[in-house]
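Q: Please design a sequence for this.
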């Protein structure tokens, strides 16, 4: 499967117009954004994935307005015995599990990869869904198999059902409704109330985004800084006087600590370096699989010339100015590697052809870690 054409993806709208008028502002329905798209899975193959321990799966059930959420991996028997209605099975990280999923996610590369999160797929029988809710991040909901009715609302009331295991809006009143067919797509900005109800056996593919929270960035930056800190000095009190209140922390000690903490220094470069590492860091459950019998440097170089390479779907390469990051580590760039690394980060692959020895050296080390693979010939 090739990346889907951008022309269709936004229904002929330019990315400039989309970003100006819709992104983070207004919902957008695109009929036949992906003509011919039916998804790559059916209920049985999604159930298989939901039983794997390298997949993040959830089963949401509702009975008499009581919601129940369970996390996978599941037993196949349990999934096969689900009732005819009232549930939804969701698997996240489909871009790691299916090469087509990775390509679908990266069809949205007119937006920064640093903002992309993952591709999720859900299956629901007729009437099923995850209930009326809002998400914190932007999402493109792409209809795969079957039909789904999407209801959306501009309501300000975001009150939630108390005690429910997921966010369910207690007073959802739809003001727009559409029925989506395979290949149709609905874009929703963050915090926009919506409710998707399956009309038939139904699969929805969600391209989800992420945005860091200020609290998370500050906390993580302090952790990063801690590893880099080199502070001099030791508190001393040669003029200490006898105290009658030995439980009291001396004011001089507090003043000394304030001064020491004021002396912690960091600048924009530290923040940028932290951000590159943090955003390119794989999620906690992601593990890379090194090749079983890796090629040596010479055979690898020959194969790269012939086939080119691809980033493993789990890999993230990002850059800012002259700094490059792969999977949470800064890349030690060598002379002449900048242009090719930018190309690799943007397109997630390098075509067949000769490469500089410095680049081949880096690529071989990543190949041995499972961060990249040779492109199939
Ligand atoms: C679903 O696929 O059922 C849920 C997607 C969403 O509402 O964000
Ligand atoms: Co949602």
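A: Design:
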């Amino acid at each position: 499967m090739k990346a889907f054409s951008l022309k269709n993806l936004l229904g002929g709208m330019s990315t400039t117009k989309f970003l100006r008028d819709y992104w983070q502002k207004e919902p957008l329905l695109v009929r036949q954004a992906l003509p011919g798209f039916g998804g790559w899975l059916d209920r049985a193959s999604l159930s298989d994935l939901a039983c794997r321990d390298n997949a993040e799966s959830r089963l949401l059930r509702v009975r008499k307005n009581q919601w129940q959420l369970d996390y996978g991996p599941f037993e196949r028997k349990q999934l096969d015995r689900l009732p005819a209605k009232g549930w939804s099975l969701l698997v996240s990280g489909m871009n790691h599990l299916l090469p087509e999923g990775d390509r679908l996610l990266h069809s949205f590369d007119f937006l920064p990869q640093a903002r992309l999160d993952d591709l999720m797929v859900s299956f629901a029988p007729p009437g099923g869904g995850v209930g009326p809710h809002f998400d914190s991040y932007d999402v493109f909901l792409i209809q795969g198999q079957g039909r789904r009715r999407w209801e959306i609302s501009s309501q300000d009331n975001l009150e939630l059902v108390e005690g429910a295991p997921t966010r369910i809006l207690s007073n959802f009143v739809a003001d727009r409704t559409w029925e989506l067919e395979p290949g149709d797509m609905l874009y929703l900005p963050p915090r926009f109330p919506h409710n998707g109800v399956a009309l038939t056996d139904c699969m929805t593919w969600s391209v989800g985004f992420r945005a860091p929270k200020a609290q998370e960035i500050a906390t993580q930056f302090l952790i990063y800084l801690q590893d880099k800190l080199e502070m001099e000095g030791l508190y001393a009190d040669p003029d200490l006087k006898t105290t009658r209140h030995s439980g009291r922390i001396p004011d001089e000690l507090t003043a000394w600590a304030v001064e020491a903490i004021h002396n912690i220094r960091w600048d924009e470069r530290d923040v940028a370096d932290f951000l590159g590492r943090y955003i390119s860091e794989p999620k906690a459950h992601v593990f890379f699989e090194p090749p079983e019998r890796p090629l040596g440097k010479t055979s690898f170089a020959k194969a790269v010339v012939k086939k080119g390479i691809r980033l493993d779907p789990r890999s993230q390469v990002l850059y800012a100015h002259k700094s490059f990051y792969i999977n949470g580590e800064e890349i030690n760039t060598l002379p002449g590697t900048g242009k090719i690394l930018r190309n690799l980060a943007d397109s997630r692959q390098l075509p067949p052809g000769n490469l500089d020895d410095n680049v081949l050296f880096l690529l071989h080390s990543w190949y041995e870690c499972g961060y990249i693979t040779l492109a199939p010939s």
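Q: Thanks. Anything notable?
A: The first helix runs from residue 6 to 9. Residues 297-374 form a domain with the Malonyl-Coenzyme A Acyl Carrier Protein; domain 2 fold (CATH 3.40.366.30).
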